[in-house]
C-alpha cells in the first residue's frame, strides 16, 4: 500500500473467541491467527482489502485504532511532535521487515503507524 493509506484496524476485545464469533457472524469477516501470531487473530473483510486484528483490551487500548502505512516512521514521528502531537510508542519491530509505532494527535486521538512488509502464512 502507498504512503498514507489506512492499512489495518485493531479492535480491542476482552474475549478473543467471543469477538471472533461476533464479528464473523455480523460482517462475514474471515478471522484466523496466522503462524507466529497465535494470540492475535486477524480479520479480513469480504472485499479482501480491509483488515486488521482483534487485540487484547488494555488500560491504554480501549478504542479501535487505525494504522496508516508510511515510508518512514521516524520521519512521521518527528513531524508529529513538530505539529503538536505526541509519541505514545516509539518504532518497534513486528517482524524482521516491518515496524509499528503509535502517536497521539493534538486532540488526543491515537493513530498507529506501519512501515515495511509483513509476510504471514
Descriptive report:
The chain is an alpha+beta fold. It has one domain (6-116): Roll (2,3-Dihydroxybiphenyl 1,2-Dioxygenase, domain 1). It is 18% helix and 40% strand. The protein has two helices and eight strands. It has helices at 16-27, 73-82; strands at residues 6-13, 30-32, 42-44, 51-56, 65-69, 86-95, 98-104, 110-116. It has an eight-stranded mixed sheet with strand order 2-3-4-1-5-8-7-6, with helices on one face. The longest helix is centred in the N-terminal third of the chain and has 12 residues, at 16-27. The chain starts with 5 loop residues before the first strand and ends in a 5-residue tail after the last strand. It comes from Marihabitans asiaticum. Residues 5-116 form the VOC domain.
